[in-house]
Specification:
The chain has one domain: Arc Repressor Mutant, subunit A (Orthogonal Bundle), CATH 1.10.10. The chain is about 35% helix and about 10% strand. It is built from six helices and eight strands. Strand 1 and strand 2 form a beta hairpin. Helix 1 packs across helix 2, helix 3 crosses helix 4 and helix 3 crosses helix 6. This is HTH crp-type domain-containing protein. Pfam families: HTH_Crp_2. It comes from Reyranella soli.
């Protein structure tokens, strides 16, 4: 999720993964901001749930509202940590922390890889750095043998990266990260009947990456598009 500024610069607010809503806030804050958008960086499936269908599910399964609230609070926790890093941390620690966060969140959805499918420009726009500054930061990380050479972001020494960043995943509520919600459903309840328009791509609606969505609001395969990316900005 990002916002484009009048001068053409971009600020990335969040990187999102399987199971994450990219605009859940619009369910309770319907005011739209035409400057805020989402973009995909790898292949994924996107599902659309209309707000009235989401409300129907919450009415049928009250614990669903707790899961959505928890997800919103975890997103807020990530935003607070990002604000702290951008406002008070030097560039090297700022970028190192951002890389650690992506590795941890990718592992939470079953992606156990030292390669992060982002570009230096993506990280610069998320960390509030210029292209020149992010390039110098990457050169230093390579000099420390933390990152490999080349255009791909590949972490060689994660332990050293964590130490450099001072990374502590407690703000992600480890081990239950943002994409691992646990919702207790009363199966004796009458399941909600989806409306005929459920998953129709109209507004108002909320969107989520549906590859590993564990809850009862999972988007049906016919509502997903396989040509869109897994990690979203």
């Amino acid at each position: 999720m990002y916002e484009r500024l009048p001068d053409g610069n971009r600020q990335i607010y969040a990187f999102q993964y399987a199971g994450d809503f990219c605009d859940l806030h619009q369910h309770v804050l319907p005011e739209t901001n035409s400057e805020v958008a989402v973009a995909a960086v790898t292949d994924c499936s996107i599902g659309i749930i209309e707000h009235k269908d989401l409300e129907h599910l919450i009415a049928q399964y009250p614990s669903m509202s707790l899961a959505l609230w928890r997800a919103s609070m975890l997103e807020a926790s990530i935003f607070r940590k990002r604000l702290l890093n951008v406002g008070r941390q030097p560039a090297l620690q700022r970028v190192a922390h951002l890389l650690c966060e992506q590795l941890a969140r990718r592992e939470a959805v079953g992606i156990n890889s030292a390669t992060i499918p982002l570009t230096q420009t993506d990280l610069a726009d998320a960390a509030g750095l210029s292209i020149v500054h992010i390039n110098r930061t990457f050169q230093e990380l390579r000099r420390l043998n933390i990152l490999s050479e080349g255009r791909t972001i590949n972490v060689l020494d994660r332990e050293r990266l964590v130490g450099l960043a001072g990374f502590d995943g407690n703000y992600l509520n480890m081990p239950q990260l943002l994409s691992h919600w646990h919702v207790k459903i009363d199966h004796a309840s009458t399941p909600a009947k989806p409306s005929p328009t459920m998953c129709r791509p109209t507004t108002p609606a909320s969107r989520l990456c549906s590859e590993k969505w564990p809850g009862p609001a999972r988007v049906q395969p016919s509502c997903a598009t396989s040509s869109l990316p897994r990690a979203m900005l």
